[in-house]
Amino acid sequence: MTDNKYLASAVADDAILGLTAAELAEKIHSRELTSVEVTEAFLARIADVDGDVNAFLHVGGEEALAAAKAVDESLDRGEAPASALAGVPLALKDTFTTVDAPTTCASKILEGYMSPYDATVTRKLREAGIPILGKTNMDEFAMGSSTENSAYGPTHNPWDLDRTPGGSGGGSSAALASAMAPLAIGTDTGGSIRQPAALTNTVGVKPTYGTVSRQGLVACASSLDQGGPTARTVLDTALLHEVIAGHDEGDSTSTKHDIADVVTAAREGSSGDLTGVKVGVVKQFDREGYQDGVLEQFRASVDAMREAGAEIVEVDCPNFDHALSAYYLILPCEVSSNLARFDGMRYGMREDDDGEHSADQVMAATRAAGFGDEVKRRIIIGTYALSVGYYDAYYIQAQRVRTLIQQDFDKAFEQVDVLVSPTTPTTAFKLGEKNDDPLAMYMFDLCTLPLNLAGMCGMSVPSGLASDTGLPTGLQIMGPRHGDDRLYRVGAAFEKIRG
Ligand code: GLN
Q1: What is the mean pLDDT of residues 181-207?
Q2: How deeply is 33 buried, as exposed, middle or buried, from its count of CB atoms within 10 A (0-12, 13-18, 19+)?
Q3: Choice from 217, 445, 453 to test ligand 1 binding pocket (greatest atom count within 8 A of CB)
């Protein structure tokens, strides 16, 4: 891709920054490169370009190099690599707790907060020998679609610095798209992995709910949140998926179901052959309100899949039309409860603690000063919707809609293997463009929300530049619960046929 000058320069000039994670791992494991060299190259790159992009809230150079050194020493002793990605560094969204770096969720209320324990995902990364370069920028507590709700300034899209990289995980995706990291972790509550992936021309996956542990993932909306992998290729994403997925006793919603073999699926898919695969095009996603350039690329993508042997079927999911309303009720309800723990007593900042104010006053002052506008808006909506008299009218209704959406998916997956849609209705918008209009911001999540409500899995994979804006578009591939391997099989094939 040539129009992203950050990526283009890195890919052209450098023997390290331009390689995929799989290629880096191979060179590290064969001792052609050391993990320290690779990690140093990415740290230098961050020092060079993150002033423009603002993808990182914290860079942990020393800790990353120590982890890299440990991998090199183990390989030098002739030990087998701890994982297929051992030695390849990564950027971690600042929602996952880390004992050696602050965890802030891009909120003022958690400024400088140090967790006493590592999230399960963090622990798995460390055990896999993956050095953590730093913590990435995001919308505050993962609420938003542009990373502009960060208390520490927005992240800029490497494709055009005046535009958003999407959100809430804009930092992770922008880090990938500017070659500041070969791998990154995000979280997806309503699209926060897939949507920034689409806007930055990278690959992002929301795994099936319950397959990646939420222990130590600071909760936004617990019934929707799911951590997931993101990278520049489908195979790299699969390799990272394999590292972080799996049952965890520490998370009561963690499934004991077998984890799909996503790496084999990605390797099989890379032949580019889709013979025998049934792909459903969801009728509800093809309508007014979508940018012409996005629809154009989507139709071309469907044609390419057909040419590669896929059988294309139109699928009707009528209740998807209500996903936005249901999501923006259920999410605030869960947020209002989850964020009650930030009271100035337990974590992070405390305001007016001068002996003259009561505990209630300290809590109110801390929350007033510590939370940003969007977080407050959702706490207020959620508290209102859960109050006596409104609970039945709003929350219960939304839960009913959620069941109907699940049924739409279940019915669809009786007919087809995967569903597809554009990942976003438009390409990246300008920073500031939707800031004063929360509803317009919410509408941007139209395509990604149904999946989270149903606990299904989904991927966004680059689908070409829109002819009208010259910016990246993404193809969303959706799979049934525990059908994550299907995403990788189809995603890898698509990556191959679309170049
Ligand atoms: N944009 C959606 C929201 O604001 C999704 C966020 C997410 O997935 N964390 O809630």
Answers
A1: 98
A2: buried
A3: 445
